Amino acid sequence: MFSFAHRLALAAALALGLPASLIADTLVMRDGSRVRGELIAYRNGVFEFEERRSYGGSRTVRVDRDDVARLELDETTSDSFTGGGRPGGMRERQVAVAANTQWNDTGIDLRQGQTIYLEATGTVTWGPSRRDGPAGERNSPSNPGRPMPNRPAAALIGKVGSGDAFFFIGADTGPIRVRTSGRLYLGINDDVLYDNRGSFRVLVYF
User: Fold this and answer.
1) What is the C-alpha to C-alpha distance for residues 148 and 19, in angstroms, rounded to an integer?
2) Which terminal Cβ of the chain has fewer Cβ within 10 Å, N or C?
3) Which of 26, 200, 12 is CA-nearest to residue 106?
4) Angle at 204 between CA 147 and CA 193, to 5 degrees
5) What is the pLDDT along the chain (206 residues), one digit of tens a residue?
């Protein structure tokens, strides 16, 4: 087996053909299944992988690159997850979400089926004596003018691409599975933006 340092060196070499964030110890297959273990080698478009089996033991498998959606780097040599339940080895980007802008471009392009995580902090002012964090207004009444009428006012929301399929984020840090491919945009759930002030600081893991 490769040591972690050796696997990082292998990842650096593979990065010539694959994004560095995709080199990993969990193979995520295009059919949604996952193979956990340890990357051994990548030769001629085939991954050689030492799979850890759920009932104990291991076996060597060879998987064609075209059958793999992505790979996740196990920096802890355990199950490739952080203490908060987020997979290790993900890319991250900090984004400022201005309260007076309907949709803030994150500069992040996503794939259908990709899972992302977000962590938002800060507060925004969105009206007279109205100041809230990413979770939005408590006991917020429904408002048909907002992008998501039945969700709290001023809460953090998102969308992918140019459509109107919005999704709620709020203060949640759990996984969000993307339903379509495209650019990720973030905004706040408000119908009147011109008098808003401040921004949320959002860490996007993708």
Assistant:
1) 35
2) N
3) 200
4) 30
5) 444 444 444 444 444 344 333 344 677 788 878 887 777 766 677 777 777 765 566 778 888 888 888 766 544 333 333 445 677 788 999 999 999 999 999 999 999 989 999 999 999 999 888 999 999 999 999 999 999 999 999 999 999 998 888 999 999 888 898 888 999 999 999 999 999 999 999 999 99
d(CA 7, CA 152): 45
Selection from 200, 104, 204 nearest residue 154 by Cα: 200
What CATH class has 92-205? mainly beta
Domain ranges of the chain: 4-72, 92-205
Residue whose token pair is 């709620």: 168
Just give the CATH number of 4-72. Answer: 2.30.30
Residue 57 exposed, middle or buried by CB count within 10 Å (0-12, 13-18, 19+): exposed
Domains 4-72 and 92-205 equal at CATH topology level: no
Choose among 163, 166, 129, 132: nearest CA to 146.
Answer: 166
Q: What is the CA radius of gyration of the chain?
A: 20
Query: For residues 184 and 109, is the Cβ–Cβ distance under 8 A?
Result: yes
Distance CA 148, CA 106 (A): 20
